[in-house]
Amino acid sequence: QMKLVESGGGLVQPGGSLRLSCAASGFTLGSFSIGWFRQAPGKEREVVSCISMIDGTTYYADSENGRFTISSDNAKNTMYLQINSLEPELTAVYYCAADSSGVLAMTDDLSWYDYWGQGTQVTVSS
């Protein structure tokens, strides 16, 4: 069974950092493109970053001002999203998604991706 599982979310104080993980099982990420999305309360799901597992190319949403870093560990079949300088506005459920075509696209079109994780909650509050 092909599956993505996110972890690493939690409650963090403003200014803090988190590293989210996205572990794949049932398939190898090596030929996929991966996206990280967030969905804040009452808002639509939006892409924050994506990476090609083929050549390592990365894209980030313009609004993120360098707070996000996407990376991968092919040996562990796992993706990561490092988030620094967390602020309450970043409170959201964070999702990873995998696209089997391998074509990298910085898109909010959820149908672009074939597989989705269940999400991990990130809450930024003092």
What is the overall silhouette? globular
Fraction of residues in β-strands: over 45%
Any idea what the radius of gyration is?
13 Å
Number of helices: 0
Largest sheet: 7 strands, mixed
Mean pLDDT: 93
Describe this entry's structure for a reader.
- By secondary structure, the chain is mainly β.
- Helix content is 0%, strand content 48%.
- The chain has no helices and 11 strands.
- Strands 2, 4, 5, 6, 9, 10 and 11 form a 7-stranded mixed beta sheet that branches. It has a 4-stranded antiparallel beta sheet with strand order 1-3-8-7, with no helix packed on it.
- 31% of the residues are buried.
Helix and strand topology:
Blueprint (H helix, E strand, L loop, with lengths): L2 E5 L2 E3 L5 E8 L7 E7 L6 E7 L5 E3 L7 E6 L4 E6 L8 E8 L15 E2 L3 E5 L2
Parallel strand pairs: 2-11
Antiparallel strand pairs: 1-3, 3-8, 4-5, 4-9, 5-6, 7-8, 9-10, 9-11
Short précis:
This protein has 126 residues and is mostly beta strands. The protein is 0% helix and 48% strand.
Question: Which terms summarize this structure?
Answer:
four-stranded antiparallel β-sheet, mainly beta, globular, 126 residues, seven-stranded mixed β-sheet, single chain
